[in-house]
Amino acid sequence: MAKSTIQSIEPIIADIANGWLKSYNLDYKLEQDSLNTEIDTALNEYFSKSGGKGGNRPDAKLLLQDKSLNFYPILIEYKGYKDKLVKLDSNGQVDNRTAKNEPILKNINAYAVNGAVHYANALLHYTSYTDIISIGMTGYKDDSGDVKYSIGVYYVSKSNFGIGQKVDDYTDFSFLKEENFNAFIDKVKNLQLSQDEIDQLKEKREREIDASLVRLNNDIYQNEKGLGENDRVYLVAASIIATIGVPGKVAPLEKADLKSSTEEGNTDGDIIVRKIKAFLNEKNLPKEKKELIIRTLQNTLTTDNINKVENGESQLKRVFTKIVDDLGIYYKIGLTTDFTGKLFNEMYSWLGFTQDKLNDVVLTPSYVANLLVKLARVNKDSYVWDFATGSAGLLVAAMNEMLIDAKNKIKSPEQLAIKSAEIKANQLLGLEILSSVYMLAILNMILMGDGSSNILNKDSLKDFNGNYGFGNTNKKFPADAFILNPPYSAPGNGMIFVEKALSMMEKGYAAIIIQNSAGSGKATTYNKNILKHSTLLASIKMPLDLFVGKSSVQTNIYVFRVGEAHQNDDIVKFIDFTNDGYTRTDRKKSSCNLRDTDRAKERYQEIIDLVRFGKSKLNLFTEEEYYEGKIDIENGNDWNQTAPVDTKPTLEDFRKTVSDYLAWEVTNLLKNQSLEDDRLGK
C-alpha cells in the first residue's frame, strides 16, 4: 500500500490566526491586499521566495503605531506542517543565506519564520522602515485530530543587521492588541545582542558586502560601457546618497522616480542631483563642502551620454538600479565597517591605478584599523586626524571607538546625543589628495552618520596648516591622536607624513603602519627629527601577507607618545607579531579569506596590553617574540630590533660537545681497526 501524503492544514492555521486579529479589532490585510504603496513596492522589488523578482506576499500584514508614534510593519507567514516553524543555522540565527550571500530558498519557502524574515528584509532594503516584526505560525493535526500549533515572533531591524532576534514565546497574537502593544515594543527595545553575536553578525555582513561588491563590479565593468574611471565611482556615491533619505524631511529616491525623460531639467541626472542637494541641505555640513560634493557629482550625472535614452531607459537609471538592488540593504541597515574602503578595494581598476600606486591606497583591514585606534588610545574625548585618509577607513574605526566609549560612559540620552554629534562634527579630521578617493571618504563618513565635515581634499604636506577646514578655519584642530597608513612611495616610505603630523601636535599618541624599511634606513632623517619631540614606545612586526591580494610588503606598526623627546635610556617594546592568529587566503570564490586559526582576537588584545603595560601581560606570546630594548636617537635606523640570541655556551652545551667528540673518536677508532683487519686479511 502506498504511503499516504501528509496534507497541509495551512488554511486552518490561517483561520485561527486571522480570527485572533479580527477579534482584536486590528486593521490587517491579507495576501492580495495593499498595506501601503511603500511596503507594496518593496515587496514587489525584492527577490521572491523562488528567486525571481517580486511576488512577495505575506499571508497577513498590518501597520501598528506605538506610544512614541513610531510605526512598525507586522509581517505574518503561515504554514501547515509539523516542525516547519523556523530553520536556524549553527549560530542559532535564522538560516536564510549561505556564507557566499546566496539566499537559501528552500528554507525561505518551507519555514514560516524564515519566510517572514525574508519579507522584513525586503522592507529594510527598499523602505524607510527600520524596525519590523516578523511572525511565523505553523501547525498540524495530532493522532486525535486536534490542531496543534506553534508561533515564532522575531524582531528584524537595523540594530540586528536584518538577521532577526526572537522576542519571546507566545501562544496567540494578543501581544498585538492595542492595550498590549506598547509593552511588547518595550520588550523588543530591550533585546540585546552579546558582543560575540555582534562580532559574528559584523563578520557575516562584511562577507556579504564583499560578495555583493564583486557582483556589482563585474556587472558594471562588463555591461556598462563608455563610463570614465572616476565617473563610475561618482555614480556609486551619488546613487547611495540619493537613496539614504532623511526621515520626515527627505524621502529616499526610488527607482520609479527616474523616468528616463529627455526633458530639459528633468533628466534622470537632474532628478538625482536635486535629491542629493535636498539631502545635503538637511545635513550639518559647511556650505563649501556641500558645493564641492554637488559640483563633483553633477559633472558626471548631467552628461548627455549617461542620460541618453535607449529602449526607454537611460544608462544612469540602469546603473542606479543595479547599485540599489545589490547594495541598498547594507547601507540602509546601517554600517560600522569601512564600506567604501571595501568598494574601493574591489573596484580599484575603475580608477586606473598602477600596481605601485595601488599599494599606496590599499585598504587597511578592519581589524588592523581597530588595532591602530586602540594603540593610539582613542576615546570619546580624542581629537583624531589622518594625513593620508584614503577612503577614511581609519577614521571610521576611530569614530566607532569614540562613540562606543561615549555610550559606555554617558548615561544621559540627551548628553550622549550631544556628544555623538560633537564627535562626528568636530573631533575627526582627514586629508586626501586624490579627488576620486576623497569622494569615497566623504561617502563613507556620510554613511557612518556623518563625520564628513572635516574630510579635506588637500595635500597634507603642502596645503594644510593644522586648522579646521570648514567653519572655524582660523582655529587649530587640537589633535591628540594620530593614525596613519601612508603611501609608501612618499619620501621616507611615508615617514614624511608622520614627522609633519607629530610636529603639529602638543600631546597624545600616534600609531602608524608602514613599510618596515622606514625603520631600518629608508627614513633616518625623518626618524631622528621625530625623536626630538616624540617617544617611540613600540615597534610591532606585522605578518607579511597582511594585505592579501596586493604585493607582499613587510610592514611594522610604530607607536609614539607625542610631546616628549625620546631619550637614549627610554625602553622600546619590540614585538614579533608575524603570527597574529589569522590565516589569510586570496581565493576569489572562497566564502571567507580570513580565518581565526590561533586565537587571533586574544592575540590582538595582548598586543594592546603589552604596549600599554609591558612584560607582565605576556601570555600567548613568548619572550622570543617580545623584547624590551633601546634605540640610538642619533641613528634613526634601529627601530626593527628582535630579541637577541644568547650565544654564551652552557655547561650542558659543553657536556654535549664533549660527548659528541668522544663518540666521533670511538667511531673513527673502530673504522680504523676494521680497515687494519681487512688489510691483514683477518
Detailed description of the structure:
The strands form 4 sheets. Strands 11-10-9-12-13-15-14-16-19 form a 9-stranded mixed β-sheet, sandwiched between helices. Strands 1-2-3-4-5-6 form a 6-stranded mixed β-sheet, with helices on both faces. Strands 7-8 form a two-stranded antiparallel ribbon. It has helices at about 10-25, 35-45, 105-110, 110-125, 180-190, 195-225, 230-245, 270-280, 285-300, 305, 315-335, 340-345, 355-360, 365-375, 395-410, 415-425, 435-445, 495-505, 525-530, 600-615, 650-680, and strands at about 30, 60-65, 70-80, 130-140, 145-155, 165-170, 310, 315, 385, 430, 455, 480-485, 510-515, 535-540, 555-560, 570-575, 580-585, 595, 625-630. Strand 5 and strand 6 (about 165-170) form a beta hairpin. About 40% of the residues lie in helices and about 15% in strands. The protein is of the alpha/beta class and about 675 residues long. The protein contains 21 helices and 19 strands. The radius of gyration is 31 Å and the shape is globular. Among the domains are: about 10-195, no CATH class; about 195-335, no CATH class; about 650-680. The model is unreliable at about 350-360 (pLDDT under 50).
